Amino acid sequence: MPREMRRDEKLLSEAETLEILATAPEGVLATVGRDNAPYAVPLNYAYHQGAIYFHCAPTGHKLDNIRHNSKVSFCVIKESAIIPAKFSTHFKSVVVFGTAQEVTAEEKEAGLFALVHKYAEDHLAAGEKYIQAAAHKTAVVRIDIDHVTGKGT
Questions:
Q1: Alpha-carbon dihedral sign for residues 31, 33, 36, 37
Q2: What is the pLDDT of residues 3-33, one digit of tens each?
Q3: What is the pLDDT of residues 48-77, one digit of tens each?
Q4: H-only helix segments in the chain
Q5: How many other C-beta atoms can be found within 10 angstroms of the C-beta atom of residue 30?
Q6: Which domains does the chain have, with CATH numbers?
Q7: What is the rounded CA–CA span in Å between residue 152 and residue 79?
Q8: Which of 48, 50, 42 is nearest to 26 (CA)?
Q9: pTM value?
Q10: What confidence score (pLDDT) does residue 49 get?
Q11: C-beta separation of 140 from 108 below 8 A
């Protein structure tokens, strides 16, 4: 289990944490491979029905690592501003610990539509057609959240 936050005065409420998770523009997924080497990669994602969804190629580093070890970490930064005069940074971030697994069928389409809804809300009909035509060319992964923490200043 992850450690408790050391500076609890920076702990964000659950509501603010989930709002940041739902609206941050991108995140970074961290996995571990067969050789125990860490791998972190930025990606687009959608927070949908209490889980994180992302899409990727049907083969590659991310899926190899997830198939080896489904435990992952995922982080997002919603705000970040360096404050030079105070030798500090203003930020809001979220860190998730969870379990990742590839999804199929209806859940795969729902995950893809959640991505379209987040990133192309003005193009939902075209997005749905695109999903129908291209879903077979992509993999969709769901991260079930075991622990989530929001932090901010």
A1: negative
A2: 565 666 678 999 999 999 999 999 999 999 9
A3: 999 999 999 999 999 999 999 999 999 999
A4: 14-23, 61-68, 105-119, 124-134
A5: 17
A6: 8-152 (2.30.110.10)
A7: 9
A8: 42
A9: 0.91
A10: 96
A11: yes
For the stretch 19-24, contacts whose Cβ atoms lie closer than 8 Å and that sit 24 or more positions apart, written own/partner, are 20/76, 20/78, 20/92, 20/93, 20/94, 20/150, 21/47, 21/52, 21/76, 21/94, 21/96, 21/148, 21/150, 22/47, 23/78, 24/76, 24/77, 24/78, 24/94
Distance (Å, rounded) from C-alpha 45 to C-alpha 82?
Answer: 26
Residue 18 CB partners (closer than 8 Å, separation 6+)? 47, 148
Smallest CA-to-CA distance from 75 within 9, 141, 25 is with 25
Integer angstrom CA distances of residue 24 from 5, 45, 47, 76, 128: 21, 9, 10, 6, 23
**Cα(55)–Cα(9) distance, rounded to whole angstroms?**
35
Distance CA 53, CA 44 (A): 9
Closest to 77 (Cα-Cα) out of 56, 91, 97: 91
